[in-house]
Structure prediction request, 343 residues.
Amino acid sequence: MIIVMQAGASEEKLQEVIERIKELGYSPHLIRGEQRNVLGAIGDEREKTRLQYLEALPGVERVVPILRPYKLASIEMKDEKADERSIVKVGPDVSFGGNKVVVIAGPCSVESRDSLIDTAKEVKAAGASMLRGGAFKPRTSPYAFQGLEEEGLKILADAREETGLPVVTEVVNPEDVDLVAGYCDMLQIGARNVQNFALLKRLGDVKNPILLKRGMMTTIEEFLMSAEYVLSAGNPNVVLCERGIRTFETATRNTLDISAIPVLKERTHLPVIVDPSHATGVWQYVKSLSYAAVAAGADGLMVEVHLQPEIAMCDGPQSLKPGTFKELMDDLTKFADAAGRSL
Ligand code: PEP
Ligand code: MN
Prediction:
């Protein structure tokens, strides 16, 4: 159920409603809005009509059921008329879901200190606002490079120190959540782990915002249910990432589901970004799909960039060289403009 407070209702009245929700055995989730505050009461679906009486409390405007199976992730949690959406902040300077299109760039995996720091400087100079790089790599083959693990995390932290760019890296194992959270600004959950519910629940224990990638075979509803796991575990800062899904097409590594952008925007208040690198697997297609994503309303991009893709330890064929990334960034300005956004 959603409890919509009246515009200007006092903090005292809000706290009173929160207490009543708890008394009824539901957990309150507060979303503060510019106009009015909204409370989600999450718990046993069968008994939810008991919450209807909250409508009689002072300061409450209305109590409405959330019809979708995902509750906290649903757009209904926000004031739709005001087109209110979640802004997810990473560090003091990066905001997903605002006017600015956020670009994350960097190599698939952290390979060495020098190469990561050089790449970070290049992508920063080209206009990227965040650095990516995998320290724990979920690889299809057990014989492939698995990442530098904690050493890779230290290198990421050094690259942040050197450039000021906040860093995002993947966490694969529930046991490593605290370790990765200690080094990085944002935690990535990869496509292969989007339905690793034990891992998703652990994300409620950390303050870091989460970059949740869509699985290659998850429907949009399943994707939003995964986001719901993180939100209901107590971490409200989730950014969704469309990164291509598996189809019958083999010309590209995956098929970018561009329609996921407007569909997600209609159903959820969470920011949505696009990863054109994993979506195609081919660097030559990355620019076009980046433009398409921004034109379709994406709040950001995540692009793989490598100094020497020919010798990359992971995903070289889909990685842009810094010069091509710079071209992408320069041209992206026009598409951002056309979509009413800035870079
Ligand atoms: C990645 O971003 O490096 C990655 C492994 O992506 P995905 O989980 O989307 O395959
Ligand atoms: Mn990769």
